Amino acid sequence: MELKRRFPSIWISILTLTIFLTGCISGEKEAQDKQIELHKQTNASTNNENDKKETGQEKAVSGVSIKIEKALMLEHPDQKGKQVLQVQLKATNKTAAERHVDAFEMSVYNHDNKKLKIYPGDNLGAKLAPGKSVKGYGYYVLEGKGPFRVEYENTDTKEKQDWTIEKWTDMTAKASEKK
């Protein structure tokens, strides 16, 4: 008799748990879709040579050679009308010891020297064995205008290097409308 009384409450608990888990899974799917959209924008081609980057200078920070290969302006996946600056990096460990490289050790400042907020995308973070290289990205929510100053500071050694991004490729919908 007592089992019959508990049977409906067990089913209600199972139903509630199922609904909760379905909501969690759909939230993960939305986050994955945003990352895919950022990468689609990155991989789109552009023929406007005036928008090409003027980066590429390689600098060493605590034995890690860092090169900004390219900078792209992408649509912000969450906020219509806003953009995200994608900084494409290559880092090579030039030491005999393991080193870390992390986009969170990098700060980007606009023309007015205001620090841009990091966008929680697929930001670079890696351990580098001696002689090994890695390529990755740093994402920053654009505010204001460029040129942009990039500062990388190794949090352990406090060693810093600066780059200036004067030109970037505009991959936003506005750029494709101009063509």
What does it look like?
With 179 residues, the protein is of the alpha+beta class. The protein is built from two helices and eleven strands; from the N terminus they run αβββββββββββα. Strands 1, 2, 3, 6, 8 and 11 form a six-stranded mixed beta sheet that branches. A hairpin with a 6-residue loop joins strand 9 (148-153) and strand 10. The longest helix is centred in the N-terminal third of the chain and has 42 residues, at 2-43. The chain is extended and about 70 Å long.
Describe the largest sheet.
6 strands, mixed
Give the tally of β-strands: 11
Strand content: 35-45%
How many helices does DSSP assign? 2
What portion of residues is helical?
25-40%
Distance linking N and C termini: 75 Å
Reconstruct the topology from this structure.
Layout: H1 2-43, E1 58-61, E2 64-75, E3 83-93, E4 99-102, E5 106-109, E6 117-118, E7 125-128, E8 133-141, E9 148-153, E10 160-165, E11 169-170, H2 173-178
Parallel strand pairs: 2-11
Antiparallel strand pairs: 1-2, 2-3, 3-8, 4-7, 5-9, 6-8, 9-10
Features:
179 residues, alpha+beta, 3-stranded antiparallel beta sheet, 11 strands
Concise structural overview:
Helix content is 27%, strand content 36%. The chain is of the alpha+beta class and 179 residues long.
